[in-house]
Structure formats: structure tokens, C-alpha cells
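A.,

Following up on our hallway conversation. C-alpha cells first:
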């Protein structure tokens, strides 16, 4: 958050004490992100494998494929 052009950090609110002049406030928002890590043991695979970053509300589909003669 910027107050009068100065970075005051990530705050949930801000109070202007003893108001005697104009002020500006700017709030910036970021979406929550999550890391999903997929891995497979022997005799199969997953796709995508490894770490995938997804944003809040997104959908991630992971395909699980067993090798021939194996099942999930």
C-alpha cells in the first residue's frame, strides 16, 4: 500500500490522524497462488509432472497413466 507516495507495506487498513491536508492512498491486490506437485512411482506416469503453480479459482487437470499391465 502506498500512502502519500510512500510504501507502508501490506496492511488491512490505514488511519489518517490529525487531518489538516489532502492525502492519497493506493492499494494493490494480488491473487492467492498455490503450488501443486505431482509425481508418479514406478510403472506409470503423471502429466504434468513436477510443480505447477495455479491461481485461486483455477482448475488443474492431472492425467494419471499406468504402464501396460498396471492399474491405478
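Then the amino acids I'd put at each of the 72 positions:
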Amino acid at each position: 500500500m502506498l500512502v502519500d507516495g510512500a510504501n507502508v507495506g501490506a496492511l488491512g487498513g490505514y488511519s489518517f490522524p490529525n487531518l489538516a491536508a489532502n492525502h492519497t492512498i493506493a492499494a494493490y491486490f494480488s491473487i492467492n497462488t498455490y503450488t501443486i506437485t505431482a509425481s508418479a512411482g514406478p510403472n506409470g506416469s503423471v502429466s504434468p509432472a513436477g510443480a505447477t503453480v495455479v491461481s485461486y479459482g483455477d482448475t488443474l487437470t492431472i492425467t494419471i497413466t499406468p504402464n501396460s499391465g498396471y492399474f491405478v
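The two ends are 49 Å apart (CA to CA). Curious whether your intuition agrees with the design.

B.
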